[in-house]
Each structure stands twice: as structure tokens, then as C-alpha cells.
Amino acid sequence: MGRMSKTDTVAETEKIVSTAAPKVAGSQTATVGSAAPDPMHLWNRLKRTDPKATKPFTRSGGFRGTQIDPTWRLMMMTEVFGPVGKGWGYEQMDWTIAERMIFICARVWYLDPETGEKCWTGPQWGGTEMVRRRNGIEAPDDECFKMSMTDAVGKCLVQLGLAADVHMGQFDDSKYREEAEAFYAAKSNPDLQPAAIAAFEEEIRKRLGACLDLDDLEELWRTGAGTRLREIGTVDRTAQHRITSLFAQKKAEILKQDEEGGDLEAA
After folding, report:
1. I need a surface site. Which of 85, 126, 145, 228 has the fewest CB within 10 A?
2. Which of 115, 100, 109 is CA-nearest to residue 19?
């Protein structure tokens, strides 16, 4: 086995130890005695693929699949963990050449958003043909090393859940693809970013406090709150449910006050 240049390794440049809660849309800071961390948390954040970052392909033998843009995968990892080399990265473990193919073994590391602990996925192997035939002529492929590394890293990222919906066959369902398109369209909306959702929730709390009866509550819902909550639900169901529950709580308070007022009048 040979070893490649150190330039093929994205090394950790700085280890960040953080006790802060992960930056998750709609999440709240963990407190002592709170529920145990959700083991599917990272998987669920990474599993949904942007249809714009995919394209269908067909291999010899009739195999059909969905190709995922490697740059999009890097962007998603950066969004969740931070810049490559700082919040996450990858390193080459081994490489070999066999049957005119280059195989590279790699593994991926990342810093847990909750604990700052350095974690690993892999190792995984990726392989690419070193010589390709084009127009009946064989020629060396100068991208073969890079493509093999991309293949190996991509397999490691699947273990975290990145683009899991493609690998689980969900992109074969046209309805699912439409839902994914709607999700990413909403995600790019400034009004649906985490800070904007938090500001909306605070505004709703204040406006609910000023509601005196069910008519006020209904007016608040009809003047945009209901529509905005449906939009929020496309990107953050937890926040949607949390804000919707505020309306339910306020309604219960108003009904209770009306009931108590009726009892006093009867007395």
C-alpha cells in the first residue's frame, strides 16, 4: 500500500470545546434534568436532499440512480458543523491500485454540536477507473484520485444521515420530491430562518397577552398568524407545534375565565 501527500487530508486545525446547546431551529437551551438527547437528531437534520443538487444517471446494464452534487454535501456539513477543517473534516487512511482502478480509504471526523467531542464515521473505500474510453480512444483520467476521495467521503457522510432519503429510495416518489422542493424553497425564505421564527414567536406571545376574548384570538389567527404557522411547519415542525400550543393555552384561559365569570353572575 502506498501513501499520498498530506495535502489530501483535511486536518483539524482547532478543537472547539463547547457546552452550548446545538444551534437547531426551534430548539431550546437544554436544562438540568431535561430529556435525553435524541439519537436521530443529526440524521434528521441531514437526511433531506435538495432536488436542485441531484440529477438522474444510468450506468451500463441499465442501473438507474440519483447523483448528488458533492459540493452540496460539503455545504450541508458546513451548515451543521462549521467550516471544513474546523468543525468537521476528513482524512485519507490508505490507497491502492488494482485492475486499472484507484481505491482510496477515508474517514470523516466532526465535532459533536452539543459536547464538542470529536467523533468519526468510516472508514469507507471509494474507487474510480484510472483510464476511460471516450470516442473509442482510451485516455488517462486526471480526476480519478479526486473522484475516489469524493466517493469515499460521500459514503462516510451517509453514515451520519446526509442525503439518506436518496439512498433509501424516497426520491423515486414524485410526491416526496415535490415536498423536498417545497422544503428548500421555504428554507431560503428570510422569514423562515431561525432568528425570524424566534422573533415571530415572541411577537405572538405579546399579542396573545393582549387578547381579551375569543374574538380577539380569532382575529389574531386570521390576520396572518395561521398562514405564517403553516409556512413555518415546512421547515420547523417543532416551532410550529410550540407556537400553535400558545393559541390553545390562551383559548383555554379565556374559556376558563368566561366560565368563572358566569358562575359569579349566577351566584
Report:
1. 85
2. 115
